[in-house]
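Explain this record to help learners:
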Amino acid sequence: MAVAPATAAPWSWAGAGLGLVAGLGLWLALVRLPLLRRVSLEDRVAPYVRDAVPPSRLLRPEAPAGPLAAVERMLAPVMADAVRGIERVLGGRAGVRTRLDQLGATTSVEDFRAQQVVWGAGGLVAGALLAGAVASARGVAVVPLALLVLLGGAAGVLARDWWLTRAVRRREERMTAEFPTVAELLALSVGAGEGAVGALERVSRTCAGELSGELRRTLAEARAGASLVQALQGLADRTSLPSLARFVDGVAVAVERGTPLADVLRAQAQDVRDEGRRALLESGGRKEIAMMVPVVFLVLPITVVFAVFPGLAVLRLDL
């Protein structure tokens, strides 16, 4: 009687796995049935434009090649449905687009949602492994285990969003650290007699970093037909740094009204350095308060115990 549960456990897990796979296959088959599938606008319009001239094959996107091409084509409809589901639940398309622009990435919102689906699938797998380990160790009920798996998937989706926000914050910190040097170089170039466009080209060509890359993108937009002020305004819109916004305003005023640009750039570089110094002092104050936590809750109780214990031992010996 004691051996039967131990031998029946692997068969029960195997049956549960087979049932899960069979249920997932039936669900996929039912979801893709024509009766349950919502007809898209493309499917409704396709019969009426079938006689139209096909586009050039040079304009078609390249089909995925390699050993996993068939798998990608099979998973494309499921991935598209998952992306639309995440878009309906999370929303915030404009916020995602803004953060991708701040990161300087060429990734579209749909690609980012697809990455969230992949991260969510990884979270589901991690949650399933954790649930299996908990079930094999303690034998928890099915409902908490299912909730654990779902929480793993949700954590994976939210982790990708948090990672994007973290990457944007780190990039803006690097841009803030680079801005005083770039502003000083621009001031030197302008003071040497170059114009605003020439100074930007020289600095973006000689420097390396996030801010110089944004300056190169700004110059590319200016060469494409936009004015320098509009291109710089696009730079300010792609970032959320007040120092860059003030830089754009100063350059715009100097270009439009002919005011001395070198003095404006030097003053802005000094303002950014002062702001960084204040941020460093504030960070030091927060770290000083955080250092009190181990002192008060760890070191001080141990010190009190070492101070009181000998007296208590002497009192016990006297008694």
About this structure: The two ends are 58 Å apart (CA to CA).
